[in-house]
């Protein structure tokens, strides 16, 4: 490329490579001369830089790297199923489901569940069965040994936690993996938990709770509420209005 | 190759490209992730000097495939120029399958669709496209001629 150019002559791709410092020397020189005088071109470049910053804020590289590596595991011939008797972490299967789950979610229409300025967070459950991955409905019948994957959508709630309560009254924490406070929820996209779980032989049901709020909150408050629910057949946790709660129940074969 | 470092540097560009073609943020994110998965699978092909070139074309090609597949499944009624270019590969594949030389030597041809998109939609000159795909200008022109004959809409651009 030689001579003078204007904004209309410069494809986005050229600006992208300029920002990455991967534009060949001659083209870079021409572009830099144009940037000195062409305000439209400069504005386009600045818009790309702004979008870079926005993307780094919304999709941190560490999070995206995790998603990418999970998909890579899916394509690996070494992926294997693991088995256990209790809800158990199975990263490879999580990756399988993560990939399949996203397009299913994409086709879904946005639920209109806005409450007091924030939407109720959404929880979805997928099962990896003999017929492939399927999205389960609330109250679906499941079997011990089924592998399930949890996917959530924060719907604008900044912090959250996911637990399950089974028919024996056992409480299992799924998110966050550790710590005493709620996790920062991924915003804007459906997020798949890092692990899939194998359902055990607890009777009657397995119920998942996603509790979310605008501010960080202590998990022992949620766990206290869950322990109360374990003693009754009620589903609601009875938390105050600042907490948005989404539940998802899977029925076991001997469920009433 | 550290995927986090790679994404940190090239991710925004790839997401933007996917967003531009797919016009949907979540689908763009999903497609961008797939681009990086492919990069990891073919890391030996990644040129050390200008990885952006390969990533940009991989994103373009992957998105065109998705647009074509959506069209086949009847999930989109959109029939714009990008969709027409995306659909072109069917014909191109049939033509390529008849090429004995290409079969014998296993030549890997740059997708005509990608070249068409770079030229007709992105506004790159034939020379820029030729540099990008490592072909001669006349070679690019010849490939685009075949496509243009089928897609009269391109001539009006």
What secondary-structure arrangement, pairings included, does this model have?
The complex is a heterodimer of chains A (256) and B (157).
Chain A: H1 12-19, H2 25-37, H3 39-58, H4 61-75, H5 91-107, E1 114-115, E2 118-119, E3 122-129, E4 132-136, E5 140-141, E6 147-153, E7 159-166, E8 171-175, E9 183-184, E10 191-198, E11 205-213, H6 219-230, E12 244-251
Parallel strand pairs in A: 5-12
Antiparallel strand pairs in A: 1-2, 3-4, 3-6, 6-10, 7-8, 7-9, 7-11, 11-12
Helix pairs in contact in A: 1-3, 4-5
Chain B: H1 3-22, H2 25-41, H3 51-72, H4 81-87, H5 89-97, H6 100-105, H7 112-121, H8 126-133, H9 137-150, H10 152-155
Helix pairs in contact in B: 1-2, 1-3, 2-3, 3-4, 4-7, 7-9, 8-9
Structural class of chain B: mainly alpha
The CA-CA distance between the termini of chain B, in Å, is 41 Å
What value does the average pLDDT of chain B take?
74
- What are the low-pLDDT stretches of chain B, counting only 5+ consecutive residues below 50? 90-108
Rg on CA atoms of chain A, Å: 24 Å
Order of helices and strands of chain B: HHHHHHHHHH
Distance between the termini of chain A: 75 Å
Helix content of chain A: 25-40%
User: Into which percent range does the helicity of residues of chain B fall?
Assistant: over 70%
Q: Ranges of chain A with pLDDT <50 over ≥5 residues? A: 77-117
What's the total number of strands of chain B?
0
Quaternary structure: heterodimer
Number of domains of chain A: 2
Shape estimate of chain B? globular
Q: What integer value in Å does the Rg of chain B equal?
A: 16 Å
- Could you say how many structural domains of chain B there are in total? 2
Biggest interface reads: A-B, 35 and 38 residues
Largest sheet of chain B: none
Q: Tally the helices of chain B: what do you get? A: 10
């Amino acid at each position: 490329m030689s001579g003078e150019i204007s904004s209309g002559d410069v494809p986005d791709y050229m600006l992208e490579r300029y920002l990455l410092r991967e534009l060949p020397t001659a083209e870079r020189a021409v572009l830099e001369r144009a940037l000195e005088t062409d305000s439209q071109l400069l504005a386009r470049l600045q818009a790309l830089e702004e979008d870079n910053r926005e993307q780094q804020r919304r999709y941190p590289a560490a999070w995206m790297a995790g998603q990418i590596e999970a998909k890579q595991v899916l394509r690996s011939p070494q992926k294997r199923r693991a088995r256990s008797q209790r809800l158990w972490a199975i990263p490879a299967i999580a990756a399988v489901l993560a990939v399949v789950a996203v397009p299913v979610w994409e086709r879904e229409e946005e639920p209109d569940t806005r409450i007091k300025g924030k939407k109720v967070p959404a929880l979805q459950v997928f099962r990896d069965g003999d017929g492939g991955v399927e999205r389960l409905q609330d109250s679906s019948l499941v079997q011990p040994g089924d592998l399930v994957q949890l996917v959530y959508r924060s719907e604008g709630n900044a912090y959250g936690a996911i637990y399950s309560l089974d028919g024996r009254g056992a409480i299992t924490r799924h998110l966050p993996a550790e710590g005493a406070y709620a996790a920062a929820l991924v915003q804007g996209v459906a997020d798949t938990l890092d692990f899939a779980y194998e359902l055990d032989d607890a009777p009657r049901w397995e119920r998942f709770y996603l509790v979310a709020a605008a501010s960080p909150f202590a998990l022992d408050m949620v766990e206290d509420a869950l322990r109360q629910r374990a003693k009754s057949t009620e589903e609601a946790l009875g938390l105050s209005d600042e907490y948005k709660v989404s539940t998802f129940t899977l029925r076991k074969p001997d469920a009433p | 190759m550290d995927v986090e470092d790679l994404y940190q540097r090239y991710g925004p560009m790839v997401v933007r490209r996917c967003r531009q073609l797919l016009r949907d943020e979540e689908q763009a994110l999903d497609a961008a992730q797939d681009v990086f998965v492919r990069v990891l699978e073919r890391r030996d092909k990644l040129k050390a000097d200008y990885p952006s070139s390969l990533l940009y074309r991989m994103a373009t090609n992957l998105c065109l495939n998705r647009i074509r597949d959506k069209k086949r499944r009847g999930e989109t009624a959109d029939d714009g120029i990008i969709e027409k270019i995306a659909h072109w590969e069917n014909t191109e594949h049939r033509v390529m399958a008849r090429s004995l030389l290409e079969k014998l030597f296993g030549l890997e041809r740059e997708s005509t669709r990608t070249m068409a998109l770079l030229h007709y939609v992105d506004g790159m000159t034939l020379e820029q496209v030729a540099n990008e795909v490592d072909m001669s200008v006349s070679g690019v022109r010849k490939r685009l001629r075949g496509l243009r004959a089928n897609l009269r809409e391109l001539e009006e651009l």
